[in-house]
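FORM 12-B: Structure-to-Sequence Request
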């Protein structure tokens, strides 16, 4: 019989069921296990984001595990202890849901329920007013400093959300959740190597194009959701608009060949 985390399980008749909707594959499996092992199996499935075994090439991973008693006719066993009113059964029914990752649906990445999004942005870059005039005549009226035009700068915000982190695990050395500490040390810095988001297929960001911004931590009851934001500028954060040739270039320290970097480069591999 198959096992999950070395625990024997049995897939039931009528399982699996599968569906395809606009390229998104989802499936559901019905699995029987010992009642005493139900939570350990569910925790293992969700923590490891296990792939759907019947069509592994689809890339579908566990998204949800629902637990109920195995049979409606199965009677509760007497509870060990002074209070016999608590229900306990011989076997549990696990309804395991799988889904291929999409941008708006969180998935388990490295044991963390994660969602990623790209949000387009635009900002105005003020240009040199001395290069423009009001009239079509060669001797037209010069612009005043306050009349300078602007150039649209298109970019994006890369947003990564870690959902529902247990508060008891936050900040625990080695075994706990410490991503926020790593991100906090990167605020105001740019990536020193190419970055590739885990969920956004076919997208990568070049060196020094990703600026780490302060994160948001939203706590509710026993969990905290962390939202990490990174600003993307394809021209690079350490290149600047040069008015005389209309290009983005680096500054250099006076009298040297050493480029000046407003934003230090750092290793983003820790996140």
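FORM 12-B RESPONSE
SEQUENCE OUT:
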């Amino acid at each position: 019989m198959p096992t999950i985390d070395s625990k024997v399980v049995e897939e039931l008749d009528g399982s699996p069921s599968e569906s395809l909707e606009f390229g998104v594959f989802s499936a559901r499996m019905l699995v029987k296990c010992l009642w005493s092992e139900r939570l350990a199996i569910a925790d293992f499935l969700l923590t490891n984001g296990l792939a759907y075994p019947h069509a592994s090439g689809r890339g579908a991973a566990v998204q949800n595990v629902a637990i109920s008693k195995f049979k409606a006719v199965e009677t509760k066993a007497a509870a060990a202890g002074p209070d016999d009113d608590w229900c306990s059964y011989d076997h549990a029914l696990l309804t395991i849901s799988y889904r291929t990752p999409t941008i708006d649906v969180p998935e388990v990445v490295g044991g963390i329920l994660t969602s990623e999004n790209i949000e387009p942005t635009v900002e105005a870059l003020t240009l040199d007013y001395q290069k423009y005039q009001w009239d079509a005549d060669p001797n037209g009226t010069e612009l005043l400093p306050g009349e300078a035009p602007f150039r649209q700068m298109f970019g994006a915000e890369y947003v990564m959300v870690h959902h529902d982190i247990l508060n008891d695990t936050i900040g625990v050395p080695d075994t706990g959740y410490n991503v926020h500490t790593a991100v906090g040390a990167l605020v105001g810095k740019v990536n020193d190597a190419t970055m590739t988001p885990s969920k956004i297929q076919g997208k990568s960001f070049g060196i020094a194009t990703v600026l780490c911004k302060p994160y948001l931590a939203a706590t509710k009851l026993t969990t905290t959701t962390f939202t990490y934001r990174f600003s993307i500028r394809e021209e690079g954060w350490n290149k600047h608009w040069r008015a005389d040739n209309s290009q983005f270039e680096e500054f250099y320290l006076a009298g040297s060949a050493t480029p000046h970097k407003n934003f230090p480069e750092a290793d983003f591999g820790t996140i």
